[in-house]
Design goal:
It is a single chain. The chain is α+β, with helices and mostly antiparallel strands. It has 4 domains: 24-135, Sufe protein. Chain: A, CATH 3.90.1010; 149-254, Sufe protein. Chain: A (Alpha-Beta Complex), CATH 3.90.1010.20; 277-370, Sufe protein. Chain: A (Alpha-Beta Complex); 401-502, Alpha-Beta Complex (Sufe protein. Chain: A). It has helices spanning 2-22, 85-99, 111-127, 196-210, 222-238, 251-255, 258-276, 321-335, 347-363, 368-388, 392-411, 452-466, 478-494; strands at 33-34, 45-52, 57-64, 69-76, 157-164, 169-176, 181-187, 282-289, 294-301, 306-312, 413-420, 425-433, 436-443. A 4-stranded antiparallel β-sheet has the order 1-4-3-2. Helix 8 (321-335) crosses helix 9 and helix 12 crosses helix 13. The radius of gyration is 31 Å and the shape is flat. The two termini are 59 Å apart. 33% of the residues are buried.
Length: 504
């Protein structure tokens, strides 16, 4: 027993010595980067700082003097998103330590957490009695509009309005007269920290400075920005003030009641449109699944022309999916085709509109898509006929090609692989020979609709076209893209094919 105790003490002693040799290491989160303890000078100070991340406070510990960061450690980031914000927690301290600077690039896809780590580190350096600007930190100055209450006239009114933001209601309180906005404040408890909250802080000042609601949205916070403007408009209207005075409307528009002018324009537009619609046109409806619920389309068309299209979907995301509902129908009618580009950022809703329109056309028995397909088949038939007229050498080359293809087919293997995506497992089924990827299908039920699912749809084609797994990730879906590549690599290995052939 005594011998065992001595042995245990010896092991502990070796561990202590090893820790001393390898240097100082904080233990809270395992994301510490530091020099050896014996390299930290006496004038270095240990201090902590805290800043707001995406999901909660981010706490950082720094050991530094006026010129050098000797250790940086994230103590707490429990509220940050797994596999996104946590990537910044894992990677950014090393970047800051190696550069001895806070002016390093944020981790892709984790800007808010990255910024929080830098701000918390800057606060820690300041708390240690040193200047964070020595390490490249530039404090972001908030734009503040100072409102002098003495300047507000007696006829100004203060009213409130509300509109739907990204996470919940956004409420605006505005003080104004018929032609001037004197003060505006916006609140929304459920808006995204660091994004929507930035719009709540900055946009009111811009509206007051411009004396207009027609100011640019805060970058990255379009939905919250639009909610602030809409709530301000409702507030002005509730006070009997004309919101058009603050939206850059022309004086002619102000002279006549807005509703009357709008009605006249709409009536004329409808009349002009109806004149162009022939008697054999039919109006039909179709439905498809959008991001939040069903998307319905009403379409007026003949066998060869689309005259009108209206799309509705009550559950689509305000400011994103709703943008597709507003903009895509016009693009389809103008192009006289369903094969138009999706509205940026609203791929799922856009595809639902096109699918619902296709179903509507099919229900009317004159599917434009089918007509285009028939035309394509006719073109193929003509090409096939031309092919048969090739000379004997071409036929011989084709025969050799067929023989090679049969040989390749005999060597083909199909295998599956799996890797962790953003929401759950991503599975890949791949068909390949030793030096060529023939087919690749990726599935992942838990990936984010319209983002991760876009990678599942598009990346396999890129891999096949390049015959290479090492292709660029789909923008905004890096984690799902990497999971597809990793699963494909595992599938190839399980089939006995060297994946390095496809990683050049």
């Amino acid at each position: 027993m005594k011998q065992n105790n001595i042995l245990a003490l010896g092991v502990i002693g070796v561990g202590i010595v090893a820790a001393a040799i390898t240097g100082y290491q904080a233990t809270n989160l395992g994301t510490s980067t530091s020099v050896g303890k014996n390299q930290i000078p006496k004038d270095a100070v240990t201090a902590t700082g805290e800043a707001q991340g995406l999901g909660g406070p981010v706490k950082v510990e720094v050991i530094a003097n006026a010129e050098k960061i000797f250790s940086i450690n994230v103590l707490d980031a429990s509220g940050e998103t797994p596999n996104i914000g946590t990537l910044a927690v894992d990677q950014l301290p090393a970047s800051i330590f190696e550069a001895n600077s806070l002016a390093v690039d944020s981790v892709t896809g984790a800007t808010i957490t990255s910024t929080a780590i830098k701000n918390a580190a800057a606060q820690a350096i300041e708390n240690a009695g040193f200047d964070p600007s020595n390490f490249g930190f530039v404090k972001e100055e908030k734009k503040e509009v100072v409102v002098n209450t003495d300047d507000i006239p007696a006829d100004a009114v203060t009213v409130t309005g509300e509109a739907q933001g990204l996470g919940g209601p956004v409420t605006v309180e505005i003080t104004a007269t018929a032609d001037k906005i004197y003060n505006l404040t916006a609140v929304g408890d459920n808006e995204t920290p660091g994004i929507g909250t930035k719009a709540l802080e900055e946009l009111p000042g811009e509206i007051i400075s411009a004396n207009s609601l027609s100011v640019d949205a805060i970058s990255g916070a379009t939905v919250t920005s639009d909610a602030i403007k809409e709530a301000a408009k409702k507030a002005l209207e509730s006070a009997g003030l004309d919101a058009a005075n603050f939206t850059g409307a022309s004086s002619d528009a102000k002279d006549a009641p807005a509703e009357t002018k709008e009605s006249e324009a709409e009536t004329k537009k409808d009349a002009d449109s109806k004149k162009d619609i022939p008697a054999d046109a039919v109006t039909v409806t179709g439905e498809a699944q959008g991001l939040g619920g069903p998307v319905k389309v009403e379409i007026t068309a003949t066998a060869d022309k689309i005259y009108d299209l209206v799309a509705t979907g009550d559950k689509e995301t305000p400011g994103i999916g709703t943008k597709a509902l507003e903009e895509l129908p016009g693009k389809i009618v103008s192009a006289n085709s369903l094969d138009v580009d999706a509205v940026s950022g609203a791929t799922v809703t856009s595809e639902a509109i096109k699918e619902a329109a296709k179903k509507a056309l099919e229900s009317a028995d004159f599917d434009k898509a089918a007509a285009q397909e028939t035309e394509a088949e006719e073109t193929k038939a003509e090409e096939s006929e031309a092919e048969t007229e090739k000379d004997a050498d071409s036929k011989e080359a084709e025969t050799r090609k067929d023989a090679d293809s049969k040989k390749d087919a005999a060597d083909e293997v199909t295998a599956t692989g799996e890797a962790q995506g953003l929401g759950g497992p991503v599975k890949v089924e791949i068909t390949a020979i030793a030096d060529k990827i023939i087919k690749l299908v990726a599935t992942g039920d838990k990936e984010t609709p319209g983002i991760g699912t876009k990678a599942l749809e598009e990346l396999p084609g890129k891999i096949i076209s390049a015959n290479n797994i090492n292709v660029d990730a789909i923008s905004g879906a890096t984690i799902t893209s990497d999971a597809i590549k990793e699963a494909a690599k595992k599938a190839l290995e399980s089939a006995g094919i060297d994946p390095s052939v496809f990683l050049k």
